[in-house]
Q: What sequence folds into this?
């Protein structure tokens, strides 16, 4: 029996204000500061001249167009793959769906710079794997992955799971009555799919597509590896290159450009929220439709799906592994050339060993802090909703949903100066990256914990309160044991996302605070691709193991916590 | 009384130590060495001076200078010490009064002319620029002019002087060379040559087979060949251009003692041996050159008119960018 949210006790109010202040300081303040920098640069008064110059430069417009064309093409590819796969998984009776889905959503946890590296090493003339079979393009031919088409294709692959998840959620709520009625009237499956399923899915498809689009616009790893060597800049890589080349003196210009990207992303995200609301409203959540028996066609369909998935999700990483096993670039893999130098050499380099240490430390700290903050926050979000709580709930979405470069530049702007009162500067240290990670990934911990709270009966908490237990005590002794699996899942989600993060750390790192993402990128840029491949393989191995661990935990989690399970 | 005496004696005892106190604190280095080499240099330096914390920024020389110039404008130059590709860049900084002389630098054994007469910068190596080709290439180039042949159409890649200091010197030397000049660059453009960001990108392209011919610094190509990459390095007939990877201390250095210790280290026998071990020709003649290098007596070098280039560098870079886009 749920009662209306009671007035907050004094101690609880204190907690809430402390949470609001902390989240405001690491999320709202930097984003507001970014907008302020764009219109009043360098602490001066209102001055649009820098913004005007940044926005009227031909390079900006060229990059904007390239961002647009690769994102549109990428989204189209995501839709094709995501919708097709969702229909096959949700509507038919093919076997081993869980395994298929696991492989299909792998791109969600494989960082895009590593995926780009894998595809380059598979498709180019340097391919150690294809070379071993004599299948590599002949020397003297360009790498097909570099430039516009490669970027679009990879953006499409990476974001196909987003479309898939949106459409599958919609398909699960498909009213079986409509389908059965149509079948009863003699419509065959093709007609049902065209006239009933797809139209009903339109809002879900739109929501998935918009999400894929906004993720493509903000993507850094893919255009950084496939675009920068070809001189093909998107807006995000343009900002990165300016900042990397000219240092903080171009911060005002970078702030303008990223504020524009951020504003654009906000509009798309708003449309996405509306499309999602429409998905929820139009469909009933009754019994899902019977899976369609594929009969004779089942095996060929399964072979087609597995074959396609292996080709796009497994072979590139085998190629990456092969690249890590050759002594130098351009060497074809064979028993004579095979060497573990890439792997042993990786750890012989201080910077690489340090990057592993830094990334594990950052991911560990970010996930502990995120869970520690999300736990009391989820309590308020689920059981004590007020205007302030709703505002915080929306605010924690922003740093994650907006392109990473927006948060990175916002964080630089705020923390380039020494902290007030303490007088120390965290700019150029590991801690600025940690702070940005907490802001960016908090929502990943909040959502599963919030869902777990929503399933609990608040009566337990009220009983404890009536018995005189304080807020902290109730959180620890009543709520925590019950939401522990969700908190664990949230911690792992934050951990595996932060471990390979590149966009934010690429702008915030300095020597000594390099991260795994940064080190892969700079090894590749420095011409040591076997080493870059070896580090990537190790990083992926950790991530996939964590993902498997999460899957084992899935049964004890609220439904929908893990996009790939259940 | 006795206590005071003891205190005075103790003070006396520490004096000589204080005079040559080991350098410590933070040292900021801007360098154009490849990531792994820069790291190895710093590690070796820290074995000698464990109390110095070194942080470094690595990028192409021209890129680093863009960054440094911006820092000068903002009145906040970050680095204490520079280890960058070429003497011309150092001359530019010296002209602008950005460098600090180090009269005590040990230059014995270094070739004459390899360091600034006023001791503001010191050559640490000899790095030549020549031609790298993939062994699958149909033509074995022997001269710069060979890159203009039809066999090389669309297959040549070179580092852009807008990123690399060695490439800037290369451009300066070639463009003033009889028989080559700007016509050579225009010929390359007509033959479909491309400019890459820096030397590592050239190696990646040629060793990986995306291009067959490249313009590149010697050690990257030779080191890759030694490791098994299918490439060969050629010192072109007309002469290889070269840079000296000089080291210098900024006038605004915040940790001058550590900066001087760094200069001492890279010029020392140990620092020079490390350079050789990294596959680079050391400046110190007494140190054995690395494997894979020919006898330098047989290599023709093409010097760059540094004094002349000082005034034209900006215009040259623009001209290059007009031709190749970057």
A:
């Amino acid at each position: 029996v749920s009662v209306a949210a009671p007035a907050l006790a004094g101690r609880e109010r204190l907690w809430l204000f402390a949470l609001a202040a902390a989240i405001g300081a690491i999320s709202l303040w930097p984003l507001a500061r970014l907008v302020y920098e764009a219109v009043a640069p360098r602490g001066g008064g209102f001055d649009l001249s820098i913004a005007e110059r940044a926005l009227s430069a031909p390079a900006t417009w060229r990059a904007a167009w390239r961002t647009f064309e690769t994102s549109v093409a990428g989204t189209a590819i995501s839709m094709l793959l995501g919708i097709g796969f969702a229909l096959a998984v949700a509507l038919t009776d093919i076997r081993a769906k869980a395994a298929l889905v696991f492989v299909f959503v792998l791109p969600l946890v494989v960082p895009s710079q590593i995926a780009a590296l894998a595809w380059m090493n598979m498709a180019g003339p340097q391919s150690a794997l294809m070379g071993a079979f004599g299948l590599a393009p002949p020397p003297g031919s360009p790498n097909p992955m570099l430039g516009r088409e490669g970027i679009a294709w990879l953006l499409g692959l990476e974001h196909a799971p987003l479309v898939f998840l949106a459409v599958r959620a919609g398909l699960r709520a498909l009213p079986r009555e409509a389908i059965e009625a149509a079948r009863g009237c003699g419509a065959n499956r093709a007609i049902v799919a065209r006239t009933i399923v797809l139209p009903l899915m339109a809002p879900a498809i739109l929501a998935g597509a918009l999400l894929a689009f906004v993720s493509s616009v903000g993507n850094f790893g893919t255009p950084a590896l496939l675009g920068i060597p070809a001189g093909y800049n998107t807006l995000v890589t343009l900002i990165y290159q300016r900042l990397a080349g000219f240092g903080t003196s171009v911060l005002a210009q970078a702030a303008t450009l990223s504020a524009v990207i951020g504003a654009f992303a906000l509009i798309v995200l708003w449309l996405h929220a509306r499309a999602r609301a429409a998905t929820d409203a139009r469909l009933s959540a009754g019994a899902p439709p019977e899976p369609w028996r594929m009969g004779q066609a089942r095996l060929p369909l399964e072979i087609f799906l597995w074959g396609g998935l292996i080709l796009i999700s497994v072979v590139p990483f085998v190629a990456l592994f092969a690249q890590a096993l050759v002594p130098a670039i351009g060497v074809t893999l064979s028993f004579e050339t095979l060497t573990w130098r890439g792997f042993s050499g990786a750890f012989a380099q201080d910077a690489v060993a340090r990057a592993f240490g830094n990334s594990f430390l950052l991911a560990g700290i970010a996930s502990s802090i995120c869970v520690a903050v999300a736990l009391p926050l989820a309590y308020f979000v689920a059981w004590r909703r007020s205007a302030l709580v709703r505002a915080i709930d929306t605010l924690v979405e922003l740093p994650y949903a907006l392109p990473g470069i927006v948060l990175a530049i916002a964080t630089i702007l705020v923390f380039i100066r020494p902290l007030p009162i303490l007088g120390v500067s965290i700019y150029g240290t590991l801690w600025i990256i940690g702070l940005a990670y907490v802001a960016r990934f908090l929502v990943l911990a909040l959502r599963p914990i919030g869902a777990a709270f929503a399933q609990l009966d608040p009566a337990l908490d009220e009983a404890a309160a009536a018995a005189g237990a304080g807020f902290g005590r109730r959180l620890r002794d009543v709520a925590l044991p019950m939401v522990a699996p969700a908190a664990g899942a949230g911690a792992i989600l934050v951990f595996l996302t932060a471990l390979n993060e590149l966009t934010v750390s690429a702008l915030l790192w300095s020597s000594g605070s390099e991260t795994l993402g940064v080190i892969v990128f700079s090894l590749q840029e420095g011409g040591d691709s076997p080493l870059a491949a070896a580090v990537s393989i190790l990083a992926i191995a950790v991530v996939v193991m964590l993902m498997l661990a999460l899957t084992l935990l899935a049964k004890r989690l609220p439904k929908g916590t893990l996009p790939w399970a259940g | 009384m006795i206590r005071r005496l003891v205190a005075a004696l103790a003070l006396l005892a520490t004096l000589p130590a204080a005079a040559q106190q080991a350098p410590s604190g933070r040292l900021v280095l801007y360098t154009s060495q490849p990531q792994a080499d820069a790291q190895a240099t710093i590690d070796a330096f820290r074995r000698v001076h464990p109390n110095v914390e070194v942080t470094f920024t690595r990028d192409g020389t021209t890129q680093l200078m863009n960054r440094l110039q911006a820092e000068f404008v903002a009145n906040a130059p970050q680095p204490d010490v520079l280890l960058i590709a070429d003497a011309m860049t150092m001359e530019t900084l010296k002209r602008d009064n950005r460098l600090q002389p180090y009269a005590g630098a040990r230059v014995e054994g270094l070739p004459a002319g390899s360091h600034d007469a006023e001791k503001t910068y010191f050559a640490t190596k000899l790095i030549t620029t020549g031609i790298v080709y993939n062994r699958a290439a149909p033509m074995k180039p022997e001269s710069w002019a060979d890159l203009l042949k039809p066999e090389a159409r669309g297959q040549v890649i070179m580092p852009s002087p807008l990123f690399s200091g060695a490439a800037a010197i290369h451009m300066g030397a070639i463009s003033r060379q009889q028989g080559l000049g700007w016509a050579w660059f225009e010929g390359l453009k007509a033959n479909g040559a491309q400019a890459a960001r820096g030397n590592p990108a050239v190696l990646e392209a040629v060793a990986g087979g995306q291009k067959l011919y490249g313009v590149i610094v010697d050690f990257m190509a030779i080191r890759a060949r030694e490791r098994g990459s299918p490439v060969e390095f050629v010192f072109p007939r007309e002469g290889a251009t070269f840079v000296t990877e000089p080291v210098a201390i900024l006038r605004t250095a915040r940790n001058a003692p550590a900066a001087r210790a760094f200069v001492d280290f890279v010029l020392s026998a140990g620092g020079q041996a490390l350079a050789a071990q990294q596959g680079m020709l050391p400046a110190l003649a007494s140190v054995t050159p690395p494997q894979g290098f020919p006898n330098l007596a047989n290599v023709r070098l093409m010097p760059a008119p540094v004094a002349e280039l000082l005034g034209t560098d900006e215009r040259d870079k623009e001209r290059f960018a007009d031709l190749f886009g970057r």
User: Anything to note?
Assistant: The mean pLDDT of chain A is 88. The two ends of chain A are 28 Å apart (CA to CA). Chain A touches chain B through 43 residues (CB under 8 Å). The first helix of chain A runs from residue 10 to 39.
